[in-house]
Design goal:
The protein is α+β, with helices and mostly antiparallel strands and 111 residues long. The chain has four helices and three strands. It has a three-stranded mixed sheet.
Length: 111
């Protein structure tokens, strides 16, 4: 088996945490898709995708749970399209299809 690669959350420096989701939409969306990719490959229940550093003092870690993967892919796909990040868009669609396939297989199983 190949060696696990370490996923590095992005770092965002900000004076105020309130505007990071608007001012860093592109970076956050790409980090979410990359985090989900890592989470699926290595079967993680939670992935830290960003660290927000406020005034060089406080660090807030942003995480995503595996149960949120499909919804987050849908939400962030639109942002990636707006910013013409087509490689990340392709990855998001691929991951979403993979997750939907898993759900469909699970539904067909008799428990």
């Amino acid at each position: 088996m190949g060696r696990k690669r370490k996923f590095e959350p992005i770092q965002i420096n900000a004076e105020e945490p309130s505007d990071i989701f608007q001012s860093h939409r592109r970076e956050i969306s790409k980090a979410i898709v990359d985090g989900i990719d890592y989470g699926i490959k290595y079967r993680k229940k939670r992935v830290d995708f960003a660290q927000v550093i406020i005034k060089n003092l406080l660090v807030i870690t942003l995480s995503i749970e595996s149960r949120e993967f499909i919804d987050l892919l849908d939400e962030n796909l639109q942002t990636l399209i707006e910013y013409e990040e087509y490689e990340s868009c392709a990855l998001a669609v691929k991951l979403k299809n993979k997750l939907n396939e898993k759900v469909t297989k699970k539904d067909r199983m008799v428990v």
